[in-house]
Amino acid sequence: MVQKSLLSEENWALILGGSSGMGLATAKKLAQNGMNLFIVHRDRRGSMKTIDAHFDEIRSLGVKLEAFNADALSAEGRQGILSAIADHIGSGKIKVLLHSIALGNLKLSAPAKKPAEGSVDTLSSLAQSLGLDRTQVESKLKDLFEAGHSEVASLLEKPAYDDTNLLNEEDVAQTVYNMGSSLLFWVQDIHKRGMFAADARVLGLTSEGNQIAWLGYAAVSAAKCALESMARTIAKEYAPHGIRCNILQPGITDTPALRLIPGSQAMKWGAIKRNPFGRMTTPEDVANVVYLMSRDEAAWINGALIRVDGGEAISG
């Protein structure tokens, strides 16, 4: 059953990237509190059975949900989606816009330095000293790693990167647009159509990679910084129109997007070790804060970057 909430039944949330991870968790949280949903996603036909099951679960709560498996990143796609939304929204308005698009290039910007000829890696040396096969030692270390002993990560083979296909201009430009500047154009077009509620909340998702140079993360890092910049602009220039814009910075969260990053397993265990609460951030943690930011009491928060990480970022 839907919980009683201050959210009006005339209010809708528009989630860009709502079929998995933080976007889907947010859809479920807002639905549990009475908010209708427009979900934009881009998924292959083979994954739709699972996704549709999630959407049916949300509809069973008694809210309306309209999903669009469409291109959210072209001007034509955006206008087509907004025209379809106009057909469904009736007298309602968009109260919450969440930008949760994770589509970017994870390439090295420089070739990796090759090991010196004749050098022996630590794992091989350990196996040799124990008189064991290297594969056996690696398997046992991976078991320990999976069991939470993150300290053995340094002994394991480093994640493989393709250093023959380096980051190029098109990769960076597309990633910055997809995961960063596209937020502004969604806000502009929704506002032009008069679809925003009188007190609307626009939210985007950044990461600690906005300041830390993770391998292969250069384009996404640039996109996150662009997203933060666009959010500040929206917060200032759209405030007279009743729109608040803020950015959430989750800690390391186990999502499909994270799993695409080489070395993500080491990132996860590193986060657990560093986090004051001894666990990773979950998509539900992020969804809870999106819900908090949608409430009337959050109306005076504008132009902020809010960490949703249990203290992970400040723990060194």
Describe it.
By secondary structure, the protein is an alpha/beta fold. Helices cover 42% and strands 15% of the residues. The protein has a 7-stranded parallel beta sheet with strand order 3-2-1-4-5-6-7, sandwiched between helices. Helix 1 packs across helix 10, helix 4 crosses helix 5 and helix 6 runs parallel beside helix 7. The model has no long low-confidence stretch (mean pLDDT 91). It is elongated.
The CATH class assignment of the largest domain is Alpha Beta
- Specify the helix fraction band: 40-55%
Order of helices and strands: EHEHEHEHHHEHEHHHE
CATH superfamily of the largest domain: NAD(P)-binding Rossmann-like Domain
- Order of strands across the biggest sheet? 3-2-1-4-5-6-7
Main pleated sheet:
7 strands, parallel
**Rounded to an integer, what's the Rg over CA atoms?**
22 Å
CATH topology-level fold name of the largest domain: Rossmann fold
Beta strand %: 5-15%
Tally of strands: 7
Structural class estimated from helices and strands:
alpha/beta
What is this structure, in a nutshell?
It is built from ten helices and seven strands. With 316 residues, it is an alpha/beta fold.
Describe this protein with a few key phrases.
elongated, Rossmann fold, 316 residues, 7-stranded parallel sheet, 2 domains
List the helices and strands and how they pair.
Blueprint: E1 11-16, H1 21-32, E2 36-41, H2 48-59, E3 65-69, H3 75-89, E4 93-99, H4 122-130, H5 134-146, H6 169-192, E5 196-205, H7 218-237, E6 243-250, H8 256-259, H9 264-274, H10 283-294, E7 305-308
Parallel strand pairs: 1-2, 1-4, 2-3, 4-5, 5-6, 6-7
Helix pairs in contact: 1-2, 1-10, 4-5, 6-7
